[in-house]
Write a structure and sequence with these properties.
Helix content is 27%, strand content 40%. The chain is built from 20 helices and 60 strands. It has a four-stranded antiparallel β-sheet, with no helix packed on it. The protein has a four-stranded antiparallel β-sheet with strand order 8-9-10-11, with no helix packed on it. It is elongated.
């Protein structure tokens, strides 16, 4: 019993001792005896390490601001220890502590007080590190949520101030749960896109997608890649894009643009090289439909279409409006202007609408582009339905099949076919000159070309140099440029061939002639120096070049030969083939084939060329050289060959074969060998064509064909005309007939008109009516034609709509009577390659119309009956 009482007594004494020390410490703390408090609580902790009271009092001590060792963190560590110890003491200890005012709520209150002070310190610091310090040291504080929000706000503000993708990336990595994370992510993605693609080059956009395949800017990046990589509008570039980015929404656009970039080629065949592109089957069908010619039909208030064979391609059940032109011309283009429910649309040839917004006019620019007019403004639409340019411009034009020039507020700009702006509208003019593109601004010019503009698509810098005051196109690849007194030459690759300098430049045969500082220099065609020699004067005309060195001249002939190496006193160029050379008292005519003749003793020299009316049919320049003295003439061909010598006469070249010779007012004919073909007895000699001459004497006409040895004496009233190779149309007493080239009459002279129909049948007009006359059998096989309308009148075939006794039919010189003259009206619809005859019979009593469509061979392909009001909807009112 004693042994039990003693430990219990000792324990009670210990508790009392603890209680006394805690109580004493609290009293000393209130008195400010901080050292005494430290001693008491240190001994208390030595006696019992699980001591919430001592730790609590230590927390109070270190939180006292007059304590020399004041430390918030130490105070916090002690209160945390007190709270932990409190969980491990028994009920009696809890009761003892409660008696001196220490309880779990007291401890929590002390902790909250410390948290509050720490939070206020973080608030006063108001920076990321302050809040992070608070959050790391006081993770269970009730202010953690606030501190976190404040910390995130400050960190996000810092990232905003830096505004770099690196700053936002660091923010997201550091604070993945921040409410600003989504906004930071948006800004990061935008900034990394802008930074990585700031040079706006194709290479940067492609690398960006490789580095950031899941970027929210993928669509925009693919758009940029598409616009840059396909700006050339070449099929291969579209194909390469599609193969590299098959999942892109621009792959489909690329397939459509590829299809139309094949303009000018057989699309059906060309598509075979791209048979793995999206929409291939649809594009192949479109290529087939593109070649299909369509004719409109009308039934029950709706329009449909048939092909040239009469097969119905679209039943008449949808569209109630078509372009009026289609009723006459049919449809050959690959789109249609149609409408339904009172609204006009653009429809593809498979009859799918691809544009239904308001427009007034449409023009096909080629390569899938349509120029739309709405009111007074223009835009550009792709036939795939993509609006390239809204109709807000004063004009639009297609350049080089690659660029769109647009006019806005009186100024021109440039876009690609995908609508990417290269230049805003700042230019007065944009001109296509050969293979050059010329920009004009403020009366000055900048020279560019297609390749440079394509480079600009891939560059951020689009500078043009407006240093040119004027220019002249030498050929498609060579441009002469002017700047004040300076001249230069640039080629279509924009390489300077001759630097701008105070000089004059002349394009001569096989080279260039430069005048600078009073001296002349010769350059080859490739702009290399032809010779180091400088010349004092030069004459460059036609194919000749004359150069002066010192006081003497030398002539370079049309074939490159040199005549009299700087021994001539003067030179005169007469024509393309003849020059006059003077040396002392001597004068020579020099010909392009190096022939020369001495003309020193002649009083007059001149060049003879055909009159302008005769020149138009000549394939080469024709020149003759004439010299005269003492009433005597000599005539030479352009190669120096003499063809006449004798008394002075007037020569008039007709062509390179014949010359008219005039003596005492009468005309004759010689050939270029000098042979007399016709004596000088005629009043007029004129060429009908390159082989036949009309001759006129005593007011009568005849015909001469020297090459065919045909001569018909002048005894007819009008100029003789060719009917065919063997027959001529001649006139006597105001009537026409046929004669042979041997002057034998094939018909009587009874007709008002005769036109070629065939080698045995003539189209004639007699007594006001037309007919077909078989002249070999003297038989009128078609007569009483009141009027005819030519459908085709050429050497291939002659087709005419005839009106006979108010009934219409169709005749052909190859197919005889195509359609019998039994109709009230006939209209040819379609074009020269795809035609149908729209033939109508009007039943007046019932007021309806029977329409029969015939093909060009007279085969019936469609029959239809129309009421009067319906007939007007399909009739071609030409």
């Amino acid at each position: 019993m004693k042994f039990w009482i003693l430990p219990t007594l000792l324990l009670l004494l210990t508790f009392n001792c603890f209680a006394d020390s805690h109580k004493k410490a609290l009293v000393q703390l209130n008195k400010g005896n901080f050292d005494k408090v430290e001693q008491l609580m240190a001994k208390s902790l030595e006696k019992d390490s699980i001591n919430p009271g001592a730790r609590y009092i230590f927390s109070l001590l270190y939180l006292t601001d007059t304590f020399s060792k004041y430390n918030l963190d130490t105070s916090y560590l002690y209160i945390q220890g007190a709270i932990n110890d409190y969980k491990n003491i028994d009920l009696k200890e809890i009761e003892r502590l409660n008696k001196i005012g220490i309880s779990d709520s007291t401890l929590i209150s002390q902790k909250n007080k410390i948290d509050e002070i720490a939070f206020k310190l973080a608030l006063s610091a108001n920076n990321v590190s302050g809040f992070n310090d608070f959050l790391s040291k006081f993770p269970t504080a009730i202010q953690v949520g606030q501190a976190t929000r404040f910390r995130d706000q400050i960190a996000f503000a810092e990232a905003l101030e830096l505004n770099t993708y690196q700053a936002f990336k660091k923010f997201m990595e550091t604070y993945p749960k921040a409410v600003q994370f989504e906004e930071a992510s948006k800004r990061y993605n935008a900034l990394v896109f802008a930074s990585k693609t700031k040079d706006k080059s194709l290479k940067s956009y492609e690398q960006f997608l490789r580095d950031f395949p899941n970027t929210p800017f993928r669509k925009e990046t693919e758009k940029q890649i598409f616009e840059i990589s396909t700006a050339s509008n070449k099929p291969g570039d579209y194909y390469n894009f599609i193969k590299r980015y098959p999942e892109s929404e621009y792959a489909q656009q690329g397939a459509n643009f590829l299809f139309y970039s094949l303009d000018g080629r057989d699309k059906f065949q060309a598509l075979g090289a791209y048979n793995d592109v999206p929409l291939y089957d649809s594009l192949l069908q479109a290529a087939i439909l593109e070649k299909t010619f369509l004719f409109p039909i009308y039934e029950k208030g709706k329009y449909g279409f048939i092909d040239p064979s009469g097969k119905v391609v679209l039943e008449a059940n949808t569209f109630d409006f078509i372009d009026e032109e289609y009723k006459c011309s049919g449809i050959h283009q690959d789109y249609l202007v149609m409408g339904k429910n009172g609204k006009k649309e653009l429809v593809s040839k498979d009859f799918k609408s691809f544009f239904d917004r308001d427009f007034d006019e449409v023009e096909d620019l080629g390569f899938g582009l349509l120029k739309l007019k709405s009111a007074t403004k223009f835009g550009v639409l792709h036939k795939s339905g993509i609006q390239i340019l809204d109709p807000v411009y004063e004009d639009v034009q297609l350049f080089h099949n690659t660029f769109i020039a647009f006019l806005s507020n009186g100024k021109w700009g440039i876009k690609t076919l995908a609508g990417r702006t290269l230049f805003e509208a700042t230019f007065d003019e944009i001109l296509l000159e050969g293979n050059f593109i010329i920009f004009e601004k403020d009366d000055r010019f900048a020279i560019s070309n297609r390749n440079q503009l394509l480079d600009f698509v891939n560059e951020d810098n689009h500078d043009l140099n407006f240093n040119i005051e004027d220019y002249e196109l030498i050929d498609r690849n060579t441009l002469q440029i002017f700047q004040g007194e300076k001249e230069g030459i640039v080629n279509s690759a924009l390489n300077i061939q001759i630097e701008l300098d105070e000089q004059s430049i002349v394009d001569i045969r096989d080279g260039w002639l430069l005048k600078k500082d009073g001296k002349y220099t010769l350059l080859k065609q490739n702009f290399e120096a032809s010779t180091p020699i400088e010349f004092d004067d030069a004459i460059a005309e036609d194919r000749w070049l004359a150069l002066k060195k010192g006081e003497k001249w030398s002539l370079f002939g049309a074939n490159g030969s040199i005549f009299s190496d700087f021994m001539l006193d003067s030179i005169s160029i007469l024509g393309q083939n003849i020059a006059l050379l003077f040396e002392g008292e001597k004068a020579f005519a020099y010909f392009s084939n190096d022939q020369k003749i001495d003309i020193s003793n002649y009083e007059r020299v001149r060049i003879l060329t055909p009159l302008p009316d005769y020149k138009k049919d000549l394939k080469k320049e024709v020149e003759f050289f004439e010299v005269s003295t003492n009433g005597k003439d000599k005539l030479f061909k352009s190669d120096g060959t003499q063809i006449y010598e004798g008394r002075s006469v007037e020569f008039s070249p007709l062509n390179d074969k014949w010359l008219i010779v005039e003596r005492r007012g009468k005309k004759g004919l010689i050939d270029i060998a000098g042979n007399t073909i016709l004596k000088s007895i005629y009043d007029i000699i004129t060429p009908n064509d390159q082989h036949h001459l009309s001759i006129w004497r005593d007011k009568k006409f005849g015909l001469m064909a020297p090459d065919e040895k045909i001569y018909i004496a002048p005894e007819y009233d009008a100029k003789l005309e060719r009917y065919n190779h063997d027959l001529l149309i001649a006139s006597k007493r105001g009537r026409k007939g046929l004669i042979t080239t041997k002057k034998k009459s094939m018909t009587s002279f009874d007709f008002e008109e005769i036109q070629f129909w065939s080698d045995s049948v003539a189209l004639v007009k007699k007594d006001g009516s037309y007919g077909l006359y078989a002249f070999y059998t003297d038989e009128m096989i078609q007569s009483d034609i009141d009027h005819l309308q030519w459908i085709q009148n050429d050497t291939k075939e002659k087709i005419a709509i005839i009106n006979k006794e108010a009934q219409f039919g169709v005749i052909s010189n190859l197919r005889s009577e195509v359609i019998a003259p039994t109709f009230n009206d006939i209209v040819l619809i379609g074009d020269k390659n795809n035609s149908l005859f729209f033939c109508e019979k009007h039943v007046a009593e019932a007021d309806f119309y029977v329409v029969i469509y015939y093909d060009i061979n007279g085969e019936t392909i469609r029959k239809q009956v129309f009421q009067a009001d319906e007939y007007d909807k399909i009739y071609c009112n030409q």
